[in-house]
Amino acid sequence: MKDEWKIGPHKFSSRLILGTGKFADGDSMCAAVRASAAELITVALRRFNREKTEDDLYAPLASLEGIALMPNTSGARDADEACRAARLGRELSGSDIVKLEIHPNPHHLMPDPVETLAAAERLVKEGFHVMPYIAADPVLAKRLEEAGCASVMPLGAAIGSGQGLTTMAMVRLIVRESRIPVIVDAGLRAPSEAAAALEAGCDAVLVNSAVAAAEDPAAMAAAFADAVRAGRAARRAGLMAQGASAEATSPLTSFLGAEHRDE
Amino acid sequence: MNEVPEQIDPRPWLAAARGGARREDAMRALASDEPGPRELAALLSPAAGALLEPMARRAQALTRRHFGRTVQLYVPLYLSSHCPGGCLYCGFASDRAAPRHRLEPEQSEDEMDALKSMGFEEVLLLTGERCPGADYAYVRDCVARAARHFHNVNVEVFPMETGEYRGLAEAGCSGLTLYQETYDPGRYERFHRWGPKRDYRARLDAPERALRAGLRFAGLGALLGLSDPRYDLLALYRHAAALRKQYWRSGISISFPRIRDQEGGFRPDFPVSDRELAQFIYAFRLCLPDVPLVLSTRERPALRDGMAGVGISKMSVASRTTVGGYSGRTQYSEGQFEVSDGRGIDEFCAMLRAANLEPVFKNWEAVYR
Q1: A141 is in an annotated binding site
Q2: Between chain A and chain B, how many beta carbons pairs sit less than 8 Å apart?
Q3: Domain of B32?
Q4: CATH code of residue B148
């Protein structure tokens, strides 16, 4: 059976989503995308240059086959700006998927929950498949699901921090309650962290800095692809239950049954 | 008498920065997860000068983590060299004999067309101090024109009132750059011999007025060489920190201009060497890892090449400090200061690419206005 997940009507097999900022050039970005086997790619509207192709992320991405683009609203400080950016992104890319990012503080880029919910409600009504970037807040995640979002994207740690899955406890709560895909977005550094997110039941992870800032971005993208596959396979295989103490492979009480039989 | 406000006063850390900090203090600061003014002082200190290489390595790692392998590019456009100011160090000071020029609206359009065709999407519009030849209405008009050409328009002009900044934002301006020149009140008074710029507080508080009025970005800096750079840099850090806390939705960037040769022949009392400049930039990157740090064409090519992506995340390129000069239709010879890196855009971008860095021309979207 195919193991797919969906954003609206769009189906995906790969559970690794790649960001496109921070690469040294279009070639290394495309090499990383290919190595990642990602089918969904996010690109910042503020980096789209519809007039100058030499500074355009879109042209090299458009040359890749089998890739769905997800414009993001990075740079928006409030719901109004994000909605304007989403509409322009849809016009430019032809994609009805939008990664909703509203981070009013341009330094730490932490998402604004109030504005994000307001924008999500509006964009869903306008027919977008909305994928909001949020803090790992289980209540907000449910509110966004009720608003009709296609997924929720809780952060593992601050964008670009490479601190890993510091929000794991909250991510587990979100996964447990969610009826829409849960995608860990931001903060991951090592492929093992991506595997852990998939093992915990997340549907996908999104990475950018972890790949773009690696010494060999394409090789790191491939490593993340492997890790995501492993994490997903482990989740499907069913992890053994965790115990509070050691459990011997050869039970220590087996003799009790044997004694009974002797009688 | 001007006084440095308590919230940006560098003196609690000044002794450490001037030489009180030991090598161990600098090493501890270098390894700190939560660097603050104490750590900055140690990293600015002469003792940290022996740690330049590890500071550079950490600065590069932090720059790459926060900005990736990219360098954001912008271009300055000098609109006017008219100025009523008496700044001792400036080629535009009113007692300089050089003739004054101003771009008329249609000339500014020619210049903007030329810059746009070179690929720029971010422009910095510059004038001297407020004067009848280049007043608020003129600047606002130029901003509105530039906003039709570029995604990101910033100004480096005279300090304004809050309502004026609001008008600039409405015209399409995203941010301002305003250097305090020096944060040392006594030396500030000495250098600004006459004119509106003598008002230390009016200048110091202008970025706050601009951010309150709705501009999204404020670029700060001190003109290195005018005063003890360690005094100025500690105050600059505190200024940035205070603005970030108050205007948390706004972006702060920091520039490191060094005084250059200019008409008037001013020579700085506190020259900053290349090694010191690099150390100061690394120190800021370590203490403000997510703040864009800017280096202009004041610096020579080899220095700029070495700093790109190693602390520095944003650079000007192909700059002219003359009024106009990009379109070929408007060419005046006298600039505000000498440009050290005269490379054209292709040559500069080739350097960045050879260093495995991507030149980024567009990193803002006009739809956010």
Answers
A1: no
A2: 91
A3: 6-259+267-363
A4: 3.20.20.70
For B355, the 3-state DSSP assignment is coil
Is A5-236 a domain of CATH 3.10.105.10? no
pLDDT in tens, B151-207: 999 999 999 999 999 999 999 999 999 999 999 999 999 999 998 999 999 999 999
Residues of A in Cβ contact (< 8 Å) with B248: 104-105
In a domain, B224, yes or no: yes
ipTM over 0.85: no
Which residues 85-114 of A are in CB contact (within 8 Å) with B? 85, 88, 104-108
Total structural domains within chain B? 1
Residues of A designated as active site: 99
Query: Are A71 and A48 in contact, with CB atoms under 8 Å apart?
Result: yes
pLDDT in tens, A71-88: 999 999 999 999 999 999
For residue B329, what are the CA distances in angstroms to A40, B111, B119, B332? Answer: 47, 8, 19, 10
Quick check: is B1 in a domain?
no
Neighbour-count burial of A60, counting CB atoms closer than 10 A to its CB (0-12 exposed, 13-18 middle, 19+ buried)? middle
Cβ within 8 Å, pair B367-A81: yes
Residue B253 lies in a domain: yes
φ, ψ (nearest 5 deg) of residue B306: -70, -25
B368 occurs within a structural domain: no
**B362 part of contact set with chain A, CB < 8 Å:** yes
